[in-house]
Specification:
The protein is an alpha/beta fold. The chain folds into 3 domains: 3-93 and 615-771, Rossmann fold; 105-138 and 370-487 and 495-612, no CATH class; 197-358, no CATH class. Helices cover 56% and strands 6% of the residues. It has 26 helices and 8 strands. It has an 8-stranded mixed sheet with strand order 2-3-4-1-5-6-7-8, with helices on both faces. The radius of gyration is 30 Å and the shape is globular. Residues 1-30 are annotated as: Disordered.
Length: 786
Amino acid sequence: MDRAQERPGGQQADAVAGPRDGRTGRLPAPEAELELLVHGVGGTTPEEMLGDPRTVRVTGDDTAAVYRRAEDLATPDSPRQEPVREAYVWCNLTSGDSSRALWLVLLPFMVVNLAHWMRPAAAGRHRTVRLYGLLVRLAALTLTVLLVAAVCEVALDLVAWQCAGAQPCVRRHSWLAFLAPQASAAPGAQGSWWSLPGRRLALAALVPAALTGLLWYLSHRTWSAYESHRPMSHGPEPDPGGSALALPGFWYGRRLVARLRAAHTAAALLTVAAALATPAARFDHRAGGPGALDTVSRLLTAALLVWAAAVVGVVCRRGRSESRLDQRADRHLVRLLPLGALALLLLTAVYAGWARPGWRSTGRLPGDPAFATLMLAQGLLVVALAGVARYLYRRTPDPRDGMRGLGGPAVALLACALGGVMSGGLAQRVADWLDGTRALLPGPPLLLTWQASTIPPVLAVLLLLAAWLATETARRSRAERHRVRHEHPGEPEDPGRTRAIAQVRAMAALTDRAPLVVTVLAATTLLLGTVALAGALTTRTTPDGAARRTYDVLQTVAETSQALGSWLVGLGFVLFVTWGRRAYKDASARRTIGILWDVGTFWPRAAHPFAPPCYAERAVPDLTWRMATWTHRTGGRLVLSGHSQGSVLAAAAAWQLPPSVRARIALLTYGSPLERLYGRWFPAHFGPPALAALHRDVACWGNLYRRSDPIGGPVRVPDDANPEVDHGPLQDPLAYGRTPEHPLPAPILGHSDYQADPAFARERAHLLSRLRPELPGPRPEPRAPR
């Protein structure tokens, strides 16, 4: 951690002396100009960013740090043609040990957290905005309950209740022999102490309880590493028309994450307790059942409902203050809520494990009503969320919005569907593994079976969509060939070169098709979810007469799809973890899939505490502290230079600077998704008003992009009072054929190597000259027309 971050108080930026040489410990001499580089997706090394094999860390740690060339520290007063360059390396915040790929298993949590930040922009609609956040938090809570309920279904129902209670299944899986009741044990053997149904269930409940503990631990550990880094303190942002990213407490979600972690942990433990208590309570409530246990079950049920209501109440409270650094700690709530749920779980285990003569495990546990209720609740929450989002969008419509305000509800629906498919596929896969093809066990609840059967239709829709996109890309590529030919008049035609350039441009345009892909997936998910729910409800009754033949055909199709979906889930899980491990180890693989992961983990955990941690809660304060301390110490000119996702971090850090410092820096972005991705999908925080406010607040801003870039694009700042921000599009490749300057074929750069383009140095010099117009500077060249 930087020394600046270790000092207490609210105005630390004015007292920090600046970075020290990592070798000598001396303060460097003041510089006149500094360029602070922030890399993008996939990460890099400081040697690559600075173009020098000899670099020195001047501040930071092994996770994130600022580096300089050793030459710049050794001779700080030598004359320079270019500004001193520093590289902020943050790639270790999102990569590292390949075991972190297991975070991908919690992808539904990250997706629903993403939906929280995708609301339309609506100034002044504070109550409606809070209602939007409340609905997303409730949907996130149902996902936690769904995941734990699915694990309970596997451990309690399939393993402890069905398989351990059936002699043929126990013979297939000898490790369950100690759970087998006496009637099902091997001849001459006696049932163990664990052979009673309630005790088997209590023992199996350790699995979902341990999973809950693991999620709590991971959330707490990552909270200590990310959310606990306190941003720089400054006064409230005076401009309400800007982005909320300028508020002092936006990147300090310590209190909210702690509250949500306590609530979701308690909800998960209560889910385990409910799954454990329900079968025992059903047995006790029958006619002639034990009166004492019946009373205990009713009291326990009432306690579980009261505690569940308390959990929902905590989730409904916002618990997040962005207008200031909220350093309050709800210690009593954070401790009492999960500990109370754990105590109820232990009481439930004692109650369920009580000996009950005549209790036998037959059939399946009553899980259908619970899963149907969860699925229905998620559907209603998504519908309500869509209504709120559409209302907000109609107040301030934006034609560039990704899905006309419905991006957040669509993503929330996909998160719920992903959770349902993973739950159904897991249950069906374990059931197939326990039972094989003998059909000895009743299997998982019908709804989970039907959810597993939706996987093949979804894949079929994705294949059709991919085929259509391939056709459209080929058509666009043919159109781009004519444009490429007209861009290079007088040069000899090279059909292969033209075709390659056109293909890259056509592939880059696929990013703009993302709203269509999400719309098709959301519509397909909604339709198949309705079919799955209706199929689970109608399977209970078998029609007679002429309808029987149609019913048999549909049943055969459904069973085939269920079996295929079960195997696809197992294959998908293996591929998922394999790709994730490769993305953490291989930089090229990370660049391929990293943009989606980095977008999801850029945002604070405001909806789901078990989502992967937010790296920006460490990176943004780092950048803010570095810029504020350097400008205060030297009074020099600073260019904040961000590539790809680094440009988003740069913009977020610029917003967090005090207004006096923000007006003294220049912002240079290239390959930036600020408007193309973030502006369209997160309009409340990166929409036109927010980017226009950033343009007004910083001293100057330049943006470089290419048509061949699949991620970056123009920022389209709607401000006529200042010079245009967008410069370009840049020529790519730099030369069509062989030239004296490029005797070898110039590569098609796409999203990479913006600094290799001469326009980069010209734009940087232009921004530096605009920072101090009273100082002599290079004459800026005229910009290319947009």
